[in-house]
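Onboarding guide, step 5: your first structure request.
Type a short instruction followed by the sequence, for example:

Predict the 3D structure of this protein.
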Amino acid sequence: MSYSCFDVSIDSKIAHIQLKRPEALNTMTRAFWNELPEIIHDIDDHAKARVIVISSTGKHFSAGMDLSVFTGGDGVNPAPADQWARAEAMRQFVLTLQGSFNCLDEARIPVIAAVQGGCIGGAVDMTSACDIRYATADAFFQIQEINIGMTADVGTFPRLCKLIPEGWVRELAYAGRRLPAEKARDIGLVNGVFSSQQEMLAHVMELAAEIAAKAPVAVAGSKRMINYARDHASVSDGLDYIATWQTGMFSPPHMAEAFAAKAQKRAPEFPDLAPMRRRM
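The system replies with structure tokens like these:
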């Protein structure tokens, strides 16, 4: 299927999603917000891949939200006359935008972001919803919303506060400064920094292939447990949940295949995740 904001390819159980509007700095138009969850759900629901890689084209990863999203079309306009009705409609609109990135966090499979150049505004929301991030040496992250008189609202703060020290979140949020790639690595936002996009993508695809070779149910379980631990303060809650998960998901056949493959010095062969049913 063809998309206006993305190119999508799937090879060796790795889905590669590329932002493809470099001439417009890969800004997030109305189509972007509709296409991304459609792509992610299609891959995840139908178990078309075991890992998703998101990269971009041109000088910058993304300059963030295209302001046309808030004007015209079928968004929050025409606005109701009552200010409280307008506020409620706006809240629902923001929740819809948030859902476009929630799908990355909620996908059963890992999502890896490969960032070059600027990762600005909404792009910080997007990449913070991914499982793992890498960057080129020229990359930078910027909470741009403060520079245009608004508060970031599509996921930056709930997620970024779990990824880097709060003091750094506050500095970026209040001042709108750029966070360079090297500093982003030092404080844990990205796992590695590379001299070129080609070198970065080579590393990311190597990691993706390594993940894709693991048992998909175990990977999905790991992602679920990590997310649960992140979102729940109590260690005892996390331990209880993983015990319940293992009761249903523990797979002796998958473990036997892993041991056999290692003994026979071959790549293991695991079944894919089952397609999901979202409708009756």
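Each response can be followed by summary notes, for example: Residues 6-212 form a domain with the 2-enoyl-CoA Hydratase; Chain A, domain 1 fold (CATH 3.90.226.10).
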